[in-house]
Design a protein that fits this description.
Helices cover 37% and strands 22% of the residues. The chain is built from ten helices and nine strands.
C-alpha cells in the first residue's frame, strides 16, 4: 500500500536520527517493566516486532545476558544501524508483523514497542504475536482515548466507546485515515485497549501500566500504555 511505502521512506530518511528522535521517557519505563517480568515468568526467549535500530534487543541483552532475543525490522537502513551497534545479523532480520515466519509458540514472549499505531490492521499483528508466543505478549503503545489536543479526554473516551472515533479521524484526515507528522511519519489513531478483548481470549492474566500520563484510570488519562499478557 502507498502509506507502507511512504512510512518506510520516512524511516529511511530519518534512520541516522532514529535513536535521538525516539528516546522518550515512556520507552525507558516500558522496557524496565518488561525486564522486571522476565525472571518472574521464566521467560527465556523473546521476539521483538518492529525492532528499528535494535534498542529493545540491546537493552534486554544487557540486562539478561542469557536471554535469547531476536527482532524483525522491515527497513534495511534501520537494521544496518543495529548491526553497527554490534547486534548479530541473525538476531535482527527482515520481517513483517502481519506474517511472522516462525512456528506456533516458538518464543516464550513476543513484544512490540510503538509500532501498532503505524499499521492499518493492528488486530492482525497482535494475532500473529499471540500465535508465535508460548507464554505471553507485551505491547507498549499509544492510547488515543487518553490523548489531549482538540478534544478533551472525556470526549475522546466517549467517541471511542461509541465507535465513532474512526469516523472523526476519517473526516479530519480528509479520507486518508492516518496522520503524517515530521516526528513520527505515518500514524493511525490507535489504543492498546482496542486489542484487550482479543488478548483476553488467549491470555489468563493481563497487567497494565501507564507509561505516560497521570490519572486513576489509565484508559481515560494515559496517552501511552504498556500491557503484559500471560497465557
Amino acid at each position: 500500500m502507498e502509506e507502507i511505502h511512504a512510512q518506510r521512506e520516512y524511516y529511511k530518511s530519518t534512520a541516522q536520527k532514529y535513536d535521538s528522535m525516539h528516546g522518550d521517557i515512556e520507552h525507558k519505563i516500558e522496557l524496565s517493566f518488561l525486564s522486571s517480568s522476565i525472571d518472574y515468568f521464566g521467560i527465556r526467549s523473546i521476539l521483538d516486532i518492529g525492532s528499528g535500530t535494535g534498542r529493545t534487543i540491546t537493552f534486554l541483552k544487557e540486562k539478561h545476558p542469557n536471554l535469547i532475543v531476536k527482532g524483525i525490522e522491515p527497513v534495511p537502513e534501520l537494521r544496518e544501524i543495529g548491526y553497527k551497534k554490534g547486534i548479530n545479523k541473525d538476531d535482527l532480520i527482515d520481517g513483517n508483523g502481519y506474517n511472522l515466519k516462525f512456528e506456533n509458540g516458538e518464543f516464550d514472549l513476543v513484544c512490540e514497542c510503538g509500532i501498532l499505531h503505524h499499521v492499518r490492521h493492528p488486530y492482525k499483528v497482535v494475532g500473529e504475536m499471540l500465535r508465535v508466543a508460548k507464554k505471553g505478549i507485551f505491547i507498549s503503545d499509544r492510547n488515543r482515548a487518553g490523548g489531549v489536543g482538540c478534544f478533551s479526554q472525556f470526549t475522546r473516551s466517549m467517541l471511542d466507546r461509541l465507535g465513532l472515533f474512526n469516523l472523526v479521524v476519517y473526516i479530519m484526515t480528509r479520507g486518508r485515515g492516518f496522520y503524517v507528522t515530521p516526528g513520527d511519519g505515518i500514524s493511525y489513531s490507535y489504543s492498546v485497549f482496542h486489542n484487550f478483548k482479543q488478548i483476553k481470549k488467549e491470555c489468563k492474566y493481563i497487567h497494565i501500566l501507564n507509561t505516560k500520563g497521570n490519572g486513576i484510570n489509565p484508559y481515560n488519562s494515559a496517552t501511552h500504555v504498556a500491557l503484559l499478557a500471560i497465557k
